[in-house]
Amino acid sequence: MNDIQTKSIGLVLSGGGVRGMAHIGLIQAMNEFGLSAQVVGGSSVGALVGALYANGNSVLDMMAFFKETPLFRYNFLTIAKPGFIDTDRYFDVFKTYFPQNSFDTLEKKLHVVATNLQKGDLEYFSEGELIRPLLASAALPPVFSPVEMEGQLYADGGIMNNFPLEPIMGQADYIIGSNVSVVGELNKNALKNSLQLTGRVTGLMIYAINRKKLNACNLLMEFKELEKIGVLDRKGIEKAYLVGYENTCRRLEELLKKPQV
């Protein structure tokens, strides 16, 4: 632990919907152990948590953001755009937390990934306007509509990179990864319909694509208990937070007990 505390820390936060509240629990545990990241990379919900962390918001502020920001509002529904909910309608909600709307005013360096749907490629954002890249990174299709930036349509960063380690490499001595897109073993009864099967297959594909990057972290936190929480299940906010907090505390305590070599 003393070794970690003497190094610059990079933090990588995966996508995973409501399960991403475990990222906030991890951050709370880091705070209690005197650990602070200097650079953060995030995809989807990881981008949102990362932005709040980089902005200097407290853990209470982070939790309030997700509890108070409605996933579904009837007046946000749209038939004019691809997607059930107009993502652009969340701009004003985000503006209350990021009034300066700029990467450059954040307290920590932040890298956000989003998927360019037209070019079929991913892009990283780390300077200039902040809110629209955040909205794009978290715009999970087909629930949320894509976000237009400079004539291009962008959607969820997790489509092509659910664990954006790349922009963090070389910018920190010690990499802490938090992966909430878990693929624990399932009972056969958990795959009873097409929707469950599709979700499982998608999860396996995402995990396989990112496995090498996950293993490249100096400290990787994965939370198997999160698979019982639905990606859009707002009732799981507190539970996911506790899973992240308790597991990270235990892991950091174990590291603290290890003899230094």
From TrEMBL:
<dbReference type="GO" id="GO:0016787">
    <property type="term" value="F:hydrolase activity"/>
</dbReference>
<keyword id="KW-0442">Lipid degradation</keyword>
<feature type="short sequence motif" description="DGA/G">
    <location>
        <begin position="156"/>
        <end position="158"/>
    </location>
</feature>
<feature type="active site" description="Proton acceptor">
    <location>
        <position position="156"/>
    </location>
</feature>
<protein>
    <submittedName>
        <fullName>Patatin-like phospholipase</fullName>
    </submittedName>
</protein>
<feature type="short sequence motif" description="GXGXXG">
    <location>
        <begin position="15"/>
        <end position="20"/>
    </location>
</feature>
<feature type="short sequence motif" description="GXSXG">
    <location>
        <begin position="42"/>
        <end position="46"/>
    </location>
</feature>
<feature type="active site" description="Nucleophile">
    <location>
        <position position="44"/>
    </location>
</feature>
<dbReference type="InterPro" id="IPR016035">
    <property type="entry name" value="Acyl_Trfase/lysoPLipase"/>
</dbReference>
<dbReference type="Pfam" id="PF01734">
    <property type="entry name" value="Patatin"/>
</dbReference>
<keyword id="KW-0443">Lipid metabolism</keyword>
<keyword id="KW-0378">Hydrolase</keyword>
<dbReference type="InterPro" id="IPR050301">
    <property type="entry name" value="NTE"/>
</dbReference>
<dbReference type="InterPro" id="IPR002641">
    <property type="entry name" value="PNPLA_dom"/>
</dbReference>
<dbReference type="GO" id="GO:0016042">
    <property type="term" value="P:lipid catabolic process"/>
</dbReference>
<feature type="domain" description="PNPLA">
    <location>
        <begin position="11"/>
        <end position="169"/>
    </location>
</feature>
